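Sequence only, no structure available. Ideas?
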Amino acid sequence: MTTQQNIGAHTFYSPFGKILALKENGVIRAKSIRYARSERYKKPFPLEAMETYEIMDKTPVCPQNISPLLERLIEKTDLEKFHPDESPQFLTITRPENFTEDEKLPVVVWIHGGSYEIGCGDLPTSDPAVWVKEQNIIVVSVSYRLGLFGFLGGDENRPANLGLFDIIEALRWIQKNIQSFGGNSENITLFGQSSGGDAIAHLMISEGVDYLFHRAIIQSAPLGFRLKRQKMSLEFFRKTEFLKDEKDPLKMVEDYVEFLPSFRKYGLKTSMPF
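Reply:
I predicted one. C-alpha cells follow.
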C-alpha cells in the first residue's frame, strides 16, 4: 500500500516498516535503506522491521582508499557527500513516479564496480532515473563491504568474500519487500559492471541464492583476473594481518596501500588486489 504525503515526498509501507522517499525528476527514490548490519569479519545479519526509516543527509559507503586511476574511470568522488561506515549494507530503490497500486514492475538490481575496492551503489554515474522512466522498471542499487572488510580473507577469523554475503542478504531483503514498492519479486535481474559483474558470476554458482534472482547481465567483468592469484592473495592476507584489530577503519585503508607496490611481481592482476 502507498499513500502520498505531499509534493516531493512519498511513503512506502512494507513488511520492513514505513519508508520515506523523495519524488524528483519523474521518479520516486527511497535512498540508503539499511538492509543488514555486520561486525568486522563477520557475516551480515538481517534487521528486524522498523517503524520509520528516515532519509539520510549523506550517502553511507564502505571505508575506502580513493584511487586516482579509478576516479578517472568512474568520475571524481565528492567526499563531502559521503559518510564512511564499516557496516555499509544499504540499498536505494528508484521507481517511476506514476504508477497504479496493482502494478508489478520488473526489478533490476545494480551491483556496482570499482575493483572490489572503491565505490557504492549511489554514485552519480550510476543514477538509474532516466532508465527507470524510459523502461518503466524499478532499479535497486546495492552497497556492500569492500577491500579489507569484504574480500580479503584466508582463515576462520578473517573469512573471504563477506561482500558477497552482503549482496545475498540484500537480495533476500528485496525478495521480501519489493512488492511494497510495486516490484515483481518473480522478475528480478542482476546487473553488474566490472567487479560488480564478477560478483554476479560468483553469485550464479553460490549456494543459498535459489529464487533470489532470475536473470543476470554481466558487463565488462575482469574474469581473467581471477586466475592464478592464490599466491598473491595469501601474501596480501599475511602482510595485512597486523591491521585486523585496528580500531580506525580509515587508517586500515590508508595503511594497506603501502604493500601494493610489492605485488607488482604478480603482473596485471595486481591492479585488482582483492
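The chain has seven helices and 14 strands.
Hope that gets you unstuck.
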